[in-house]
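As a next step, the fold was encoded as tokens, giving this record:
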Amino acid sequence: MDRKTVKPAYEDAAPQPALRVQAPALPPAEPSAAAAATPEVAPRTQGDLEALAVNLARLVEESGKVAAAYLKPREAGEVKESAADQVADAVKTLGHVAEYWLSDPARAVSAQTAFTSRFIELWGSTLRRFSGENAGPLVPVDPADRRFAAPEWRDSPFFDFVRQTYTLSTRWAEDLVGRAETLDPHTRDKARFYVKQIAAALAPSNFLATNPEL
């Protein structure tokens, strides 16, 4: 008897591809509480600084127009000053300064540009300090000015910015008085006096929110 060779069944079976088990998709990770609480700050651009400069120039221009509108009826005697209006002479004196600069558009633009260009420099320096750079002050602290003797006026970017803005504004106003060519010596001296008095009253060291020592 012939013996037939019987092949095992598994040799005739075609190989089957291995099954792939796909892991269930994980839900998207929720942002951490710290990341969710941190607001996104839009970067400041050159356009922002230019818009700020334009607004400051408009503020100066409109302030001069208000002063001129206030003075005209009083100089003509159309409005009588009351006893309560004790600042009439100061307004009148500083109005002569404003009249000189606003009477010539080119002269007014030059005065505005002198201030805004310096302010833009200060703004850029302050942004660099807030970003961690070691940027020196545009207006160094005057050792003789005891109002800004505290170290916070130099070490804090915020208070340093407040101090420098105040100093730039004060010097700019004093420069406008000094370069107003139509003022007589007496009027110029009074204008300088009033500018110093106003600047002293508006010093940031006089206010709780802008004085690190209070």
